[in-house]
Amino acid sequence: MIQAGRITSIWRYPVKSMQGEQVTEAEVGDLGVHADRTWAVRDVESDATTSAKRLPGLLWLTARYAQPPGPDAGPGHAPEVLIGFPDGTEVSSSDPAVHQTLSRYLDHEVELRPLPPIDRRSEYRAPMATKTDLRTIFGLDDDEPLPDLSMFPVRKLAEISRYATPVGSYVDAYPVHIITEQSLATLGSLAPDSDFDVRRFRPTLVVDSPSPAAHPEWEWCGGRLHAPHAELAPMIPTIRCVMPSHEQPELKRDKEVTRTIAAHTRRCFGVYGNVTRAGRIAEGDVLHLNPPNRTALSATAGGGAATVKRAVMRAVSAAMPSGKKG
């Protein structure tokens, strides 16, 4: 094994798309950081979980737990959360007025919803995204091509096309999102007038790597990251939506942030991953990498799996409605 880097920060997000909180240590398991995203905002009209991709005002709200989350926090057990508004007011998830207060602030009818139990799969479903939806999510003009999602495994593609979020979680795709200090610096050097603040990218972990690579975390995909008391499996590069360009406290709206990522890294920044050994992680933990087997990965990518994935991508694209009003 080789040294991959040192954890410099850990982030938890009590409510999906609201501001996160930095913690010095955390338990991690199959669903990622303990008590991460146990609440989300649901669009009443579409009856589906929504996010700052469609309601950027969510990024201006703070969220904190009223008490430290207990060991049962998770699907079916969302601890009380306190939501703070830009004017300094705060409302509890236990207050019946929370839905009306959020709707009035967002100028859109929404409800605050706890993470449903895993067996209530219907509550994770969402209407099939249209091509117009994808253009909104990724901030694309009509003449720009839709993003390449082929890095997702076939099973994950099928899941995210059927559900608003993976069953059992309010994350977008995978329970862990890792970025490196080096990737932040690389992008910052490409657009020096933009602020590539870590808060724009909503990571689980930030790692300081000794690697000279511009994006060290990409080289970890397919391998295993060993912390002293837990193990993580980086899976694929994280494809970026329009959210990092949105305005939020202390950060101005800046389309150049996502344009830079699109132009130089094929819209990817950071990596998605899973937890393969539950345990505790902490700031300062040194991570060691069991490198991926590149030969095996290449063989898989060039074989039947790639053919199946291309077929799935074509089928999903063909079935996806345009979303344009006639």
UniProtKB/TrEMBL annotation:
InterPro entries reported in the protein's UniProt record: MoCF_Sase_C, MOCOS_middle, Pyrv_Knase-like_insert_dom_sf
Sequence intervals crossing the membrane: none
Superkingdom: Bacteria
Residue ranges of domain MOSC in the record: 120-290
GO molecular function annotations of the record: catalytic activity; molybdenum ion binding; pyridoxal phosphate binding
Protein name: Sulfurase
Organism: Mycolicibacterium aromaticivorans JS19b1 = JCM 16368
